[in-house]
Amino acid sequence: MADAEPVVKEVLIEATPEEIFPYLTRGDLYVLWMGLTAELDPTVGGLYRVDPNGSDVIRGEYLEITPPNRVVFTFGFEGPGQAVPAGSTTVEIDLIPRGSRTLLRLVHRGSPPERRERHREGWTHYLGRLQIVLAGGDPGKDPFAEASARHT
C-alpha cells in the first residue's frame, strides 16, 4: 500500500518560471539535468518517458500542463515486477515566482514506504543538477548513471 505522506522537495532557482518551464517539458533540455534520453509529449495524456541511467526506464503520462507554472505527470518504472510500476505515482511540480528567482516545489505522491527515501534522494540529486544547469553551469556526468553502468 502506498504511503500517504508524499516526498516534498523545494529548491530556489536563479531563473524565472518562463526560463525553467522548457527544462521540464522538452526532451533535449530535460536530459541536461536528468536522464540519458527523454521522450516528452507535454500534453494532457501525453507520454513522459525518461531513461535516467541506462537500466531503469521511468514512464508515465502528463496529467496537467499549465505554462509556465505547473507540470503534473504520473511516474513509475517500466517492466514486470517493479516496486513502483509505470504510472503508479504522481509528481507535481510548481514554479512559484520569487522576484528574479523561482521556488520550484516538487511533490511526489503515492510512493510505497520502502521507496520513499530513494525517491527523496533521487529528486534532491536531480533538482540540484537542474539548479546548476539553469545557473549556466555544467553538472558533469551524472554519477547515478555512472554507478548504474558499473553494476551492469
What does this protein look like?
The chain has helices at residues 17-20, 22-25, 27-30, 116-134, 143-150; strands at residues 7-13, 37-40, 47-51, 58-66, 70-75, 89-98, 101-109. It has 152 residues and is α+β, with helices and mostly antiparallel strands. The protein has one domain (7-150): START domain (Alpha-D-Glucose-1,6-Bisphosphate, Chain A, domain 4). A hairpin with a 3-residue loop joins strand 4 and strand 5. The mean pLDDT is 93.
Summary?
With 152 residues, the chain is α+β, with helices and mostly antiparallel strands. The protein is built from 5 helices and 7 strands. A hairpin with a 2-residue loop joins strand 6 (89-98) and strand 7 (101-109).
What's the CATH H-level homologous superfamily? START domain
CATH architecture: 2-Layer Sandwich
The tally of structural domains comes to: 1
Regarding CATH, which class?
Alpha Beta
Low-confidence stretches: none
- What does the overall shape look like? globular
If you consult CATH, what is the topology?
Alpha-D-Glucose-1,6-Bisphosphate, Chain A, domain 4
Report mean pLDDT, rounded to a whole number. Answer: 93
How many helical elements?
5
Q: Distance between termini? A: 30 Å
Radius of gyration: 15 Å
Strand arrangement across the biggest beta sheet: 1-7-6-5-4-3-2
Number of strands: 7
- Fraction in helix: 25-40%
Q: Strand fraction band?
A: 25-35%
Briefly note the structural class of the backbone.
Answer: alpha+beta
**Topology pattern, helix = H, strand = E:** EHHHEEEEEEHH
Tell me about the biggest sheet?
Answer: 7 strands, antiparallel
